[in-house]
Predict the structure.
Amino acid sequence: MRQLIREALPLMAAPLLSLGLEEGTWEGLVGPSTVGGSLADVAMPCHSLSPVLKKSPSDIAGEISSAISDSLIGIAEVSSLNGFVNLSAAESWLSARVEVLTADPRMGVSLDEPRVIAVDYSAPNVAKEMHVGHLRSTVIGDAIVRMLEFKGHTVHRENHVGDWGTPFGMLIEHLLDIGEGNVAGEKGISDFDLFYKEARTKFDEDPEFAERARSRVVMLQSEEEETLRLWRILVDVSTNYFNDVYSMLGVLLTDDDLMGESAYRHLLPNVVDRLSETGMLQNSEGADVVFLGGKWLNRDGEPFPVMIRKADGGFNYSTSDLACIIDRVERIGCDELLYVVGTPQKQHFEMVFEVATKAGFMDQSHRAVHVNFGSVLDSSGQMLKSRKGQTVKLVDLLREAVSRAESSISEKNPGLSGDERESAARMIGIGAVKYSDLSSDRTKDYVFDWDRMLSFEGNTAPYLQYAHARICSIFSRSGIGRESVQESQINLGTPEEVDLAKTLVLFSEAVDYSAAGLYPHRLCTHLHSIASSFASFYEVCLVLDEDEEVKSSRLAMCDLTARALSLGLGLLGIDCPERM
RNA sequence: GGGCGUGUAGCAUAGCCUGGAUAAUGCACUGGCCUCCUAAGCCAGGGACCGCGGGUUCGAAUCCUGCCGCGCCCGCCA
């Protein structure tokens, strides 16, 4: 309702001046109402004016209310209660707003001043299974990418896959033991968990293998040709597998977005040089480190460093992340760097950002944000660890979701069959998984519960998709084209229509609020309220079989609702079937 | 020990940034609603001293502070 406020404020100035309130003293009090219902959309608490005007808040609210109500005719109805001045959007104002939206494919969502933004997300490991932890990063990152692109920004997707480092010695040797012909090409690796575990076991238990693995690491780091070829096999097999998962999930990531750790390996010495030039680098027990000081103390109360180059000459992840920052700022020209990575790495990113800022890799014009997310917990509230407990393979989870969706469809709507049922099952099952992850505050821990995420009740994707499908059904049944109603005159004859109109008008604010904070759940919350308002509207307002004027208005509302839902879910990476 | 985060009905969550009115939503529970556009739905109802104590304020779930519980981080792993 920011537009209501924008329109109302100038009209309130003169009447308020006549009550003794100077311009600039009261505007900040006007904001969204905190009470629901039809009472108010915008409210102005008058309690703080009490000492100024030497009257009770209740009297002040009453006086303001009667002073401004004539000025706001056609915009809002004004009343007062409990020391609040309440503005409720006028029906004519609301219907005019809705009419503007019906002609706008962007549903009122404005474009921001464009920035160049890198979003680092997903980041699976080569030769390892993708599990539920990757699900969060992938789904949240993808939603953020879509929202930011929609707001007009240039977004670079960065998939920082784990494709370099010491584990590749044992992985390559294991590949040789198995025989590359059994892995390369179409065959792939059928079980990455098993592959990794076998390599690990041999490394731990077979000294001869461990020795081969260690010298293989040296060959890899010196970029020996044959070793690089073998490494490439593992990378290719894995990225094919990642692509299968991405395509099943329906995310934007492609091979063009791959920027693994290996891609930055030649920049690492450069990081050392540049840190050295600034004088930040210190030698500690043979290693090159940066001491930031401040609150960075270890458990003995001593300062602890950011490790840049280990005593053995190797680099670790801080260095790699610094190289990334340099690359993204200087080569890609990013204004903003977003890292969709779990909360446990918060301290790491704080330190890396601090080093990068002090070293001048970033300046005031750059913004680096750790877009953190909570851990995945099981139903008993424990961390879902990949070490011991049975890890849920991402592919298995997604297949299960789709198959559950398919059986629900068979049960609820036997009329759907063949390709259409299959495609609806995919949209519903995958949508359910994504939505359950996106719909709560990402910074908090996420309770992973198959029954809840696949349940088709409550604040879930299927509930929103169902509202969308019902609308599509109205149009297909009546044979009326969606576009043909987009210039209809809007009449809000019932409370349900008014309520629906308000949630639709608030759509653009919800998108902005969600994108600005990088919080997809805010958009979910609003989409749910749209679907919920629509469901109430649908019960009470017969769309077809009314007189022409009512019918065209309601059809336009239906079209707008369906567009809000599919656009909104689309920004979250979730598709809507027309029938389900 | 230090740092960071978190605590809201039986369960799961929103609201906290930017303080306002009777704390919102879903599941579960109770009771209603399909000769009518998909009942995967709708309507009504019960259920919360917003972890505990101080402070600021006309007003605190929200801001400050002290406790308590839980979690994560403090590795020459990423």
In short: The two ends of chain A are 34 Å apart (CA to CA).
